[in-house]
Amino acid sequence: MDILAFGVQTDERPLIEKAFRAEGHHEVRCVGVFLNEDTAPIAAGYEAVSTSVNCDLGNRVLQTLAAAGTRMVAQRSTGFNNIELKVAERLGMTVARVSYYSPFSVAEFAWTLGMAVNRRVVRASNRTRDFDFRLDGLMGRDMHGRTAGVLGTGKIGEAFTRIAHGFGMRLLGWDVAENPACLALGMEYVPKQQLLAEADLVSLHVPLLPQTRNLLDAAALRTMKDDAILVNSSRGGLIDSRALVAELREGRFTGVGLDVYEAEAGLFFLDKSLEVVDDDTLARLVTFPNVVVTSHQAYYTVDAVGQIIATTVDNVLDYVAGRRSDNVLVPAPPRT
């Protein structure tokens, strides 16, 4: 069976090709463009497509794919808010995702962002490139003894908490269910408002669902300490970006580290350096000296990407064999 993989990064291509080649029975074609209404016709004749979280699998795209023979979508991510599952089901398409990969990749990167804004690493690096070795404006603070607030304590939140525990921090958590491993580390579960009011560093590790969209809205952001650090390595839609800009304009927050952005589709993973980016909110965010924005790279380690690709291959093999795993979001229709 032939598979078309959309949105493949340069570093990913040899890993994906090698993984499918090892199976011997399936050919994969990798393209750098993302799946959307304009690029969907490329998939004509491919029974399976593999997609990334920034691909568009809405109603019209899915209809185009189905009409041209695609019967299986293998998403190379845990999140799937970009896929209209009910439409896929109606069209008789199988949809699978990667339900698990290394939580350490994202947790470690979240801390990288947190410490980068705390210790002014980007500003310091830019200065030294100009041979400016002053320390003015570079003062950070110890994390030891301060309070970490973790919104979402699943596998990634737990890994983040373990690092915070290593720093010697007080641990506050918020989630629909308490994680025994986090409790064993000394975490105290509290209401969201209390966590935001008391935490010196807040990190987001919850999925983007209708009930979590704008989890940190204007009111929630105002609850946080003026000198708090905010990190989001989960989904951009968890934060009201315009409200965040308004708070930053007031001089609030020691630092903000964002690896995701609510309107990142069509921007992240692409080179826009020679274009005019008309997203005024993102353009304003990147101008603040206490903000670091990266382009959804927290998961991007050889370990995590390797696991994602291996699971994607397994999902395709399961589809071919008629098997169903926990990764399946929309099962194949009954065979007649």
TrEMBL record:
Pfam families attached to this UniProt entry: 2-Hacid_dh (PF00389), 2-Hacid_dh_C (PF02826)
D-isomer specific 2-hydroxyacid dehydrogenase catalytic domain segment(s): 8-329
Upper lineage: Bacteria, Bacillati, Actinomycetota, Actinomycetes, Kitasatosporales
Taxonomic source organism: Streptomyces fructofermentans
Keyword DNA repair: no
InterPro entries (alphabetical): D-isomer_2_OHA_DH_cat_dom (IPR006139), D-isomer_DH_CS (IPR029753), D-isomer_DH_CS1 (IPR029752), D-isomer_DH_NAD-bd (IPR006140), D-LDH-like (IPR058205), NAD(P)-bd_dom_sf (IPR036291)
Keyword NAD: yes
Annotated protein name in UniProt: Lactate dehydrogenase
Domain D-isomer specific 2-hydroxyacid dehydrogenase NAD-binding: 114-298
Family: Belongs to the D-isomer specific 2-hydroxyacid dehydrogenase family.
PROSITE patterns tied to this protein: D_2_HYDROXYACID_DH_1, D_2_HYDROXYACID_DH_3
Any one Gene Ontology molecular-function term assigned to this protein's record: D-lactate dehydrogenase (NAD+) activity
Keywords in alphabetical order: NAD, Oxidoreductase
